[in-house]
Amino acid sequence: MKVSDVRSKYLAFFEKRGHAIIPSAPIVPGNDSTTLFTSSGMQPLVPYLLGQEHPSGRRLVNSQKSVRTGDIEEIGDNRHLTFFEMLGNWSLGDYFKKEQLPWIFEFLTSSEEGLGLDPQKLYTTVFIGDAELNIPKDEEAIALWKDLFAQKGIDAKEVDLGSEENGYKVGMQGGRIFAYDAKKNWWTRSGLPSAMPAGEPGGPDSEIFYDFGTPHNPAYGEHCHPNCDCGRFVEICNSVFMEYVKQEDGSFALLSQKNVDFGGGLERLTATTLGSDDLFLADTLQTTIIEIEQLTGKSYADPEFQKSFRIVADHVRAATFIIGDDVHPSNTEAGYILRRLIRRAIRHLDKLGVESNTLAALGNRVIDAYQETYANLGEKREQIDSVLTAEEQKFRRTLSQGMREFEKIARKGKVEGHDAFILASSYGFPIEITEELAGERSLEVDVNGFRKEMDEHQAKSRTASEGRFKGGLADHSEITVRYHTSHHLLLAALRQILGNDVHQRGSNITQERVRLDFSFDRKLTPEELAEAEKLVNEKIAEALPVFCTSMPKTDAEKIGAEHEFGVKYGDQVTVYSMGPKDATAEDPKFSESFSLEFCGGPHVSNTSELADGGKRFKITKEESVAAGIRRIKAVLE
Fold first, then answer.
1. What are phi and psi of 337, to 5 degrees?
2. Which pairing describes strands 122-127 and 201-211: parallel, antiparallel, or unpaired?
3. Tell me, what's the pLDDT at 458?
4. pLDDT tier at 474 (50, 70, 90 boundaries)?
5. What pLDDT was estimated at residue 625?
6. Dist. CA 387–CA 395, nearest whole Å
7. Which fold has domain 3-280?
8. Fold of domain 470-636
9. CB under 8 Å, gap of 24 or more: what pairs does 227-233 form?
């Protein structure tokens, strides 16, 4: 099957059973500062799993765009992906085990409504229980699985494998249903039951594995079993039964609202329908792989090049989707992950013999494969193309120099932490690239030393300029200073368009973009955003002078200067004013200024400097941050 076939079949299957199809949440969470990316379907639904009423009802289903970055260095094998789609269905206090397990088994095995998988290839796992915590073994799930397999003519024997500590010594023993401890078959946001805080919900889960029949590799243990990492078994989906809540005394009670949280990797399920454990045979990845074959003249089937094919296909796809959600490469947060992905892809394109700009062409193949499902990719094709091209050109300028520097370092026989830091800070080599290069020469890399030096460097950057960079600036580089000035122009434009109740509520300014949080109680219309963008560009074109004036705080308040949210000011403050055109340092003409704010700087001396190289101010995203707080991200391009 194709990816689109599996996705549509799954959504239709659960829609027929009373589930509302909900859209995928953005890859970058708008209101969750604890994580850079949405990594599962349940992540955006946590408030509803905890009892909040969902506007679409109590039965939900979707395919969620997801990014997981903890395994970037593992990309290159047949089963790890950075970007993937997670199929999910949820019951918010509605149905439970006796509905969920038969439904998902039917979807997997039905030739008409589902995937038509051979039930003889399916194995399941359940929770073995925890006597110390008084949580029983999941006998209900075991009974359901036995009955479901029996309907297919399969005598499903149960085997208790218990914990990792015992080495799973009993192995398969002809079993079909395997009971594991909480390390394998318990879900909570906190990990093991013992780690859960009071009030935290959790519960047992039941996973389904597909048996590809490959011989067991004893390097992964004496006995094979579904959770063995030898490659014979691959987990294809998991049903979580959220039915417990941790009490203050450490015991567990039943939740008043029992939930089902199901997740199944779309690409993994698609590959399974093809009878393969290689996720890169899914058509949405093959589209890119075929393009790489045409560009390089090399074959994906060649073991010498297969890892590089996989890394490029995975990283370009992930980068395309991340850019499609308005993230730009940077040295911080999500932008830094994006930069790491792009640069690692470029390095492996080099290994495949491609030395010219090719990322944009590969990104276009990703867009072609997905734009019918995710229309924003097609709409942002030009933006994605531009970002990939610019980042590739930027890295290729230092790649050859960095490779020469690495060869000098390699002659020492080891890559010290400082060496890795220099490769990262001066030549743009993410640590993964340095580790791969070292691995190819059997050299050790002092990763801990690298991280220590990088942390110290970042700490010094954060504490520079009286303990921190003022106004949310990441640094005082020329481009960041320009973005800082555009931040003031944007706030003034919003106040002029939306009214004087608009005030700054936070900012973050880097070399890649400006981010402004401001008070406002609704989503801005496209017309309002266009008007704000137009007004800022007009003020840039008018070449307004920018002046810094020191004055008593009381005087600054009297002239109506805006001030940064949450900052305590002394009796003497500095105020930055922008315009009018005939203003001077001696006579700033505060009453006629377009922008007037308390600020410690730094800023450009004239707004025309923001148009350096023909750049224009462009709003890339507007979203909610919290109740009554909106956020705008914008770039100069």
1. -60, -45
2. antiparallel
3. 64
4. low
5. 77
6. 12
7. BirA Bifunctional Protein; domain 2 (3.30.930)
8. Threonyl-tRNA Synthetase; Chain A, domain 2 (3.30.980)
9. 227/125, 227/161, 227/168, 227/178, 227/180, 227/184, 228/168, 231/277, 233/123, 233/209
